[in-house]
Amino acid sequence: MAEQTLVIVKPDAVKRNLAEEILSRFKKKGFRISKLKTFNFTVEMAEQFYSVHSSKPFFGELVSFITSGTVTAAIIEGDNVINVTREIIGKTNPKEASPGTIRGDFGTGILENSIHASDSRESFDKEVNVVF
């Protein structure tokens, strides 16, 4: 079975109608989207999804942002997909992300960075259970 990762096009990018453009970047790299879902996070879902950050000072702001609008989630499959996806999306802060990365091209702030992606197999396993 091919490796899988979860990506979530965040509310800032969905509001700007960027979900299709963002997801097309993964297809251009030869990856396959096996599941797709558009939805709104509840506060409870967001708290569970971001539980790894629950003790951090930005946790409340993170939950508030991800619940502020519609998101598009996708399970993406392919060889080495977790590592390659991290390269495609770029650094968390769009100001530090390289041009040509999703965050470098579309992100406008540390929260409004357009996309979330699982950073490990363990993160994927936890996150996919919250979303799908």
Automatic annotation (TrEMBL):
SMART domains: NDK
Name recorded for this polypeptide: Nucleoside diphosphate kinase
UniProt record similarity statement: Belongs to the NDK family.
Positions of the catalytic residues: 116
Biological-process GO terms, alphabetical: CTP biosynthetic process; GTP biosynthetic process; UTP biosynthetic process
UniProt keyword Magnesium present: yes
EC number: 2.7.4.6
Binding sites annotated in the UniProt record for ATP: 10, 58, 86, 92, 103, 113
SUPFAM superfamilies named among the record's database cross-references: Nucleoside diphosphate kinase, NDK
Cofactor field: Mg(2+)
Top-rank taxon: Archaea
Pfam family, one: NDK
Domain Nucleoside diphosphate kinase-like: 2-132
A molecular-function term among this protein's GO annotations: nucleoside diphosphate kinase activity
Keywords, comma-separated and alphabetical: ATP-binding, Kinase, Magnesium, Metal-binding, Nucleotide metabolism, Nucleotide-binding, Phosphoprotein, Transferase
NCBIfam families the record matches: PRK00668.1 (NF001908)
